[in-house]
Amino acid sequence: MVVYPDWAALAPALALAVTGLVLLLIDSVDPDDSRPGLLAGTAVVGTLVSLGYAGWFLASGTGQVDGGTGAISLYRDALVVDGMALFFQAVFAVVTALVCIASYDYLKERAYQAEFYSLVMFAATGMAVMATANSLATAFIALELASLPSYALVAFLKHNRGSVEASLKYFLIGALSSAVFAFGISLVYAATGSLLLADVASALSALDGGLTGVAAIGVLMVAGGFAFKTASVPFHFWAPEAYEGAPAPISAFLSSASKAAGFAVLFRVFTTAFPLDAAGVDWMLLFQVLAVVTMTLGNFAAATQETVKRMLAYSSIGHAGYALIGLAAWSGGAPGSVENGAVLGASMAHLLVYGFMNTGAFLFVALAEQWDVGRTFEDYAGLGSRAPMASVAMTVFMFSLAGVPPFGGFFSKLFLFAGAVDAGFWWLAAVGVVNSTLSLYYYSRVVKALWVDDPVGEFELGGTPTGLYVAVVFAAVGTLLLLPGFAPVIETAQSVAAALVP
Amino acid sequence: MAAFDYAPAIVLLPFVSFLVSLGAALYGDDVLPKGGALAGIVATAGSLILSLWVFFTVSAGNVYNQTIYTWTTGAGAAGEEALELTFGLLLDPLSSMMLIIVSLVALLVHVFSLGYMNDEGETGLPRYYAGLGLFSASMLGFVVAHNILMAFMFFELVGLCSFLLIGFWFREPGPPSAAKKAFLVTRFGDYFFLVGVVAIFATFGTGRFAGAESFPVLAEEVLAGEVAVNTFGFAPTTWFTVVGLLVLGGVIGKSAQFPLHTWLPDAMEGPTPVSALIHAATMVAAGVYLVARMYGFYAVSPTALAVIALVGGFTALVAATMGVVKREIKQVLAYSTISQYGYMMLALGAGGYVAATFHLLTHAFFKALLFLGAGSVIIAMHHNENMWDMGGLKDRMPVTYWTFLSGSLALAGIIPFAGFWSKDEVLYEALVHGLGTDGGLGTIFLVAYAFGLLAVFFTGFYTFRMVFLTFHGDARTGQARDPEGVGWNVKGPLAVLGVLAAVTGFVNMTPVADLFDLDIEYLHRWLEGPEGVEFMSALSAHHYLELLESDVTGIHAAELDPLIPGGVSLLLALAGVGLAYALYGRGEPEEYTAKLGGVQDLLYNNYYQDEYQVAIAERVVLPLSRAADKFDQSGVDGVVNGVSSVSLFSGSRVRRVQTGLVSNYAALVTLGLTVLLVAFGIYGGWLL
To answer: Name one GO biological process term (chain A) (predicted).
Structure first.
C-alpha cells in the first residue's frame, strides 16, 4: 500500500490552485482568448479533479474518525484536513464546476476569459483553504484569498455600471468587515496569546477574569467577519447589490460556494476555538438572534422584489439564516457525541443541497440574461412553453428552495428543523417554518410566471446555450438525486460534524 | 407449499381482467369479444381453481402467514420496534373458505352477466366488466389480507367498486344518486374504521391479524398482564373496547347494519348481477368477515360483543319487518340481506363464531341464487321489477322457479335447506350464551335472541310472499303472460347455486350431530384449524371459545338441547310461510298491506330512517358547515390575508433599509456590530 505524504491531503485545494496557474499559463501563451473551450475545459477538469479527490478522501476515510486516519494536521496545526473540510471542499468543487460550465456560454464574445476562470479558481482555492483553516491567521488569509478575486469577478462586466458599482460596494463593505475581523483576531490573540484554534480554546478556558471582556469583544468581532462572508445580518448589505450587479454565474458562485465557505470556517472556529462556557459571549444566543433576524429579513425583503435576481439575492440571505441554525441550536454535548453533530450536520447538508439548487437558480437567471428576456417576474412569463426543460429545472429549484416535498431542499430543511427541535429550540424551528412558508410565496411567483402567465409581448429566444443548459439541468438532476441520496449525505455530514469537536 | 406460492395470483387474475377491460373501455367498445366478459370469466375461474387448491392445501394441515411486500418501514422510537406497513397473505381455514365463496360467486356472476348484460344489448360493457374485475380482485385481496391496514385499503377499494357499479347506468337519475349514497354512507362508517386502524397501530405497533406479534394476541396478553402497551391513559379493557367499536363503525357501514343500512336498498339501482355480488360475496360480506377475521380482539371485550349482538339482532328484526311490504322483488331481497347479515352479527356478538361463519357461507350461496333468480325474472319481465305485475311465472320459467324456491326455502329457514341449519345455529348460540352468562351481558344476548327469533317469522312471511306473488297464481300482466326466455348462461349459474343452497347446510348439522351423537360438524372442525402450527392456535374456534369463557369476558354457555329451540324457530318460519300462503298463495292476491293503515306508511318509509338522517344532515350538519365556512372565510382567511399583507408591508419597509448608498451600509454595519457588542457585553457582564 502506498503511503502518501500528509500534504497530499490538501489535494482538493491544490488541484484548484494548480488549475488557476495553468489557466494563467495558457493565457500567457494565447493572450487573445481564441480558444474559450480550452479555458472552460481546463477549469472544469480542474474542479472535477478537486471534486474527485474530495469524494475519494471522504469515501476512503481520509481525515475522518470512522475507519480513517483521524484529522490530519499540517504545518504545525495551521491547517487541518478532516471530514468537514472535505465535505465542504466537495461542495465548493461542485458549485465551481457548474459555474465554469455555465460561464462558457455566458462569456462568449467577451474579453479576459482566462482571467475570469483563473480568478474563479483562486477564489475557490481560498474557500477550500478556509474549510481547512485551523488557525485564525490562516482563516484570515484564506478569507481574503477568497474575497479579493470575488471583488474583481463582480466587476467583470466592466462596461456595465451596475456591475462596477456593485463591486465597489462589495469591496468597501468587505474592507470594513475584514478590518473588524482582523481587529477581532488581534483582541483574541491579546487575550489568549495564540492564534491556533485549539490553543485559543484552552487559553480561553484558563482565562484570567480581567481579560474576559477583551476576549469577548474579539469573539464578537470575529463573528462579524464571518457574518460578512455568509451574508448574515448586519453584514449583509453588500449581498443584494453584489448578487444583482455581478454576472449571474458569479452571483451563483458567491451565493452558494462563498457562503458555504464562510459557514465552513465559522463552524470550525466557533465549535473548536471558542468554548461555549469560556468565550465570555453566549454565542449560541448570538447566533440564535442572528439566525432569526437574518432569515426573517431575507425572506421578507425577498417577498417584495420585482426582479428575479434580486429576489434570489435576498432569498440567499434567508438561507444563510437557516444555515445559522446549525450553530444556534448546537447542543454542545459531550465531545464527539451524536447530538453534537446532528444539527450542525443538517446545516452542512442543507448547504450542500443549497449549492445545487441555488446555483441552478442563478444559472437559470444567467440563461434568461443570455436570452435577454428581461429581469422582472413578468418578463419570465411564457418561458415555460418556449424553454420547457430549463423551466422544469427552474421549477424544481424554486420548490426545492422553498422546501416543498419531494425535493432535496425539503429533506435538508426537515433535518435542520428536526435537529433544532431535538436540541430543545422548537421556537427556532417554528420561526424557520414560518419563514419557509413565506418564501413559498415568492418562489412560486417565479413558477407561476413561467407556466401560468401569458407573455406580455412577443419575443424570440436566441438559441440554446449548451453549456448553460447542461449546468442548469445538471443542477436540477443533482437536486432531485439528493432526494433518494439524502441518507448517505446526511449521515456523512452528521458524522463529520460530530467529529469536529475532539 | 406450491399453492401458497401461487396464492397472490388469486387476487391478481381478476385485477388483470380489470386492466384488460379497462384498456378496452379506453380504446373503444368493440375490441373484446363479449365486451370483456370472457377475460373476467377466465380470470375468476382461475381464481376459483387456485382457491380450491389453497383450500385443499389448508385442509392438508398447512397454513400461511407471510409478508410479501414491505412498503414502508418507520424509524422506530428508542426501545421500540420500527413500525412496518406491509402487504401479505394470511391463508387459514377462514380465509381459504371465504376465497372459494368469493371466487365462485364472482365466476357465476360473470357468467350470468352474459345473459343479463350482453344479451340485453347493454352498452358500456367493458366498463361494466372492468368494474366487476376490480370488485372481485378487491374483495379477494381483502380476504387474504394479513394485516388490518391492507384490509382497510382493499375494504375501501371494495367501496369504490360498488360505487362505480351501482352507478353503472349513470345517465338515468336514480343510479348515480344511489351510488353516491352508498359511497357516502359507507364512508361515514369507514372514517371510524380508519381512526380505529390508526389506533391499533398506535397501540400495538402492528396491524397483523395472526402470529405471536399480532394485535389480537397482544391484546390478550395485555389483559393477562404479560405485556404492556400504550393505552392512552385508559384501562386496557376500555381502550380495546373503544378501538373495537371504532373498527366496528366500518363494519356497520359496509355490512349495512342499523343505523347505516339505508344505502343498501337504494343500491338496487345497480345491475342485478352486481347486486348479487354485493350482497352475497363482496361488499356486505366484507364487514362481517372483518369481525370474524379479528375475532380474537373482540372476544376480549364484552361491551363490544354486546353492541355487536344487539345491533345485529335489532337489524335482523327491523329489516325483516320492512321487507314485508315492498313491491319490487329486489327491494324484498335487499331488506332480507340486511336482516340476514344482522343474524351473522348477532352470532358474532353472542360468541357464535362458527355459527356466524356458517351463516356467511350458506347465505352467500342462497342470496346469490335469489338475486340471480330475481335477475332472471327481471329479464323475463323486460326489466319490470314490480311483483304485483308478475304472477304465474312458475310454469313458464321452471328452472328459475325451482332454483328460486330452493333459495327461498333456505332463506326462510325451512329444514333441510342450508339456511335452516345456519340460522338455527345462530339462534341457538345466542340463546345458550344468553342463558349461561350472568348479568347484563346475558340479558342483552337474550334480548338480541328474541329479536332474531321474531325475525324468523317475518323472514318466512316476506320470502314466501315474494315467491307466491312472483311465481304463483295467474299472470297479472301481459308481460307475465309472455315472458322473455333466458339462456344457458342464466340457467347454469342458477342450477349450480340452487344445488348449493339446498345442500350447503349439511356441512354443520349440529342438532343432528347431537341427536345421533355423530361427528359430522365438519365446519366446526374446519375452523379449529390444523394443529401444530403456532399462529393457528390463536385463530382457532376453540381458542375463541376459551377467550369468551375467560374471566375477562365471562360468557358461558348453558346446557340446552338444540332440538327445542330449533323446533321453535322452524315452527315460526313455517308459520310465516303459512301466513304468506294464506294471504297470497291462493287465487288472486290482494294488497293486504293497505289494511295496516299507519303501520303500512311507517314500513313503506322504512321507519323514516332516510328522513331523519337527511334531517340530521340538513338541520345539524349543514348549519355547522356553514358556520365553519364562515369562520374559515372570515377568521382563518382573514388572519392569513392579514399576515400576508403585514408581511408584504414589512417587506417593503425592509427594502428601504437597502438605500443603495454604501456609506449608509457602512454606518449600519458598524451600528449593528455596536448594538451586538453592547447588548452581549451587558448580558455577559463584562461591559459596564
So the answer is: ATP synthesis coupled electron transport
CA distance A237 to chain B (A): 6
> Which domain covers residue A385, as residue numbers?
283-502
The reply to whether B605 touches chain A by the CB within 8 Å rule is: no
Residue B598 lies in a domain: no
Kindly determine whether residue A234 and residue B673, on different chains, have CB atoms separated by under 8 Å: yes
> In terms of domains, do B482 and B537 share one?
yes
Hey, how many other C-beta atoms are within 10 angstroms of the C-beta on B19? 16
- Residues B634-674 have pLDDT tens digits of 877 777 777 778 877 877 777 777 777 888 888 888 998 99
Query: Residues B445, B560: one domain?
Result: yes
**Residue B59 and residue B153 share a domain:** no
Whether the ω angle into residue A465 lies within 30 degrees of 0, i.e. cis, is no
- Residue A219, CA distances (Å) to A11, A224, A234, A324 in order: 31, 9, 16, 16
What DSSP line would sit under B162-222, residue for residue? Answer: HHHHHTSSTTSSHHHHHHHHHHHHHHHHHHHHHHHHHHHHHHHS--BSSSTTSHHHHHHHH
With an 8 Å Cβ cutoff, is A281 touching chain B? yes
Q: Which residues of chain A have pLDDT under 70?
A: 1-2, 66-68, 331-340, 457-459, 501-502
Indicate whether B234 and B247 sit together in one domain.
yes
Whether A429 maps to a domain, the answer reads: yes
**Which among B581, B576, B586 is positioned nearest to B323, based on CA atoms?**
B576
The answer to whether position A453 is within a domain reads yes
Round to whole Å and give the CA distance between B212 and B505.
34
Say how far apart CA A359 and CA A394 lie, in whole Å: 11
Would you call B235 an interface residue with chain A, using a CB distance cutoff of 8 Å?
Answer: no
Let me know if residue B603 belongs to a domain.
Answer: no
Structural domain contains residue B380: yes
Owning domain of residue B674: 663-687
Q: Work out the pLDDT band at B213, boundaries 50, 70, 90.
A: confident
**Domain assignment of residue B506, yes or no:** yes
Residues B109 and B257 both lie in one domain: no
Nearest CA in chain A to B653: A301
Judge: A286–B672 Cβ closer than 8 Å, yes or no: no
- B305 with B394, same domain: the answer is yes
How near does any CA of chain A get to the CA of B662, in Å?
6
Name the minimum distance, in Å, from the CA of A458 to any CA of chain B.
Answer: 31
Least Cα separation, residue A444 to chain B (angstroms):
14
Q: Do B665 and A233 touch (CB under 8 A)?
A: no
| Boundary residue ending a domain (B111, B146, B181) | B146
B683 touches chain A (CB under 8 A): yes
Minimum-distance CB partner of B669 among A176, A216, A441: A176
Is A224 touching B (CB cutoff 8 A)? Answer: yes
In a domain, A18, yes or no: no
In a domain, A399, yes or no: yes
The number of domains in chain B is 4
Interface predicted TM-score of the whole assembly (ipTM), two decimals: 0.88
Overall number of domains in chain A: 1
What local confidence, expressed as pLDDT, does residue B604 receive?
67
Report the C-alpha dihedral over residues A390, A395, A396, A401, rounded to 10 degrees.
130
For residues B454 and B409, state if they share a domain. Answer: yes
CB contact under 8 A, A441 and B644: yes
Q: Considering the entire predicted model, what is its pTM?
A: 0.64
What is the structure's pLDDT at A168? 92
Q: Determine how β-strand A79-81 pairs with β-strand B84-91.
A: unpaired
B686 contact residues in A (CB cutoff 8 A) = 212-213, 216, 280
DSSP letter for B91, please.
Answer: E
| Closest B-chain CA to A171 | B662
Identify the residue among A237, A295, A296 best suited for mutation to test binding to B, counting B beta carbons within 10 A and taking the highest.
A237
- Reported as a single tens digit per residue, the pLDDT across B287-330 is 888 888 888 888 888 888 888 888 888 888 888 888 887 888 88
Mark whether B117 and B155 lie in a shared domain.
Answer: no
